[in-house]
Amino acid sequence: MKKGILFLLLIAILGFDTQKPPAYDVGEWFKFRIHYGFINAGFATLEIKEGLKENKKVFHAIGKGYTAGMSRFFFKVDDNYESYFDKVTNKPYQFVRKIDEGGYSKNQEGFFNQDDNKVVVKNYKNKTEKTISVTENVQDIVSTFYFLRNHPAVDNMKVGEYIAVDMFFDDEITKFKLKFIGREDLNTKFGTVPTLIFRPLVQSGRVFKEEESLTVWISDDENKIPLRIKASLAVGSIKADLDGFKGLKNPFMIKVKK
Length: 258
What we know:
A hairpin with a 2-residue loop joins strand 1 (about 30-35) and strand 2 (about 40-55). By secondary structure, this protein is mainly beta. The protein is globular. The chain has a 16-stranded mixed beta sheet that branches. The chain is built from 3 helices and 16 strands. The longest helix has 8 residues, at about 140-150.
């Protein structure tokens, strides 16, 4: 579960378009229950607060992942990811990554200069600092989640098409691709919800079983809520289901309520 696998499962969702208002706002909060096989492995949360950067109000998104119960006894995880990003352009100003996963830990911050396409990464664990060149309009790991939730192509994609975004993670640029699989009515704890199905293309090998091991269901409405994430790992499988929410900007479309 190195490199933030708990939270990587949650960024695999959808997009942003500067020509229309975002599908979210300050006060939105999600909680996910994570299962490893039949075991309740832990929880993850995502919320949006208001922040201040360069004398302007910005979104401050906070993601946390942690193991619970017996899983915590065998493999303790405490992950904290944050991003400060622009309310209009979605460009990130700063990211925070503070994780502890069974002895693997990181404590770093990144400060973006989008005009010069640079990011200064401060590693507090090793007391180092470096400046890295990045691509134009690059996203960090948390801002990618919000960047993708309102993408203009999402509602009209054909099966097999994909969306791509440059994401800065682990001191390098990753071409994050999200492939559209189709539509499905999904049974959730909230009721039957119409969904869009996507499959992020991930690197096979150490963590994931194959390139298309990860599948994501999001609500087919204006919110684009992540409802379920499933992954086949190199060893076992993992599933995350939406367990609670509040502060949605738009009505949650449910066909049959429980």
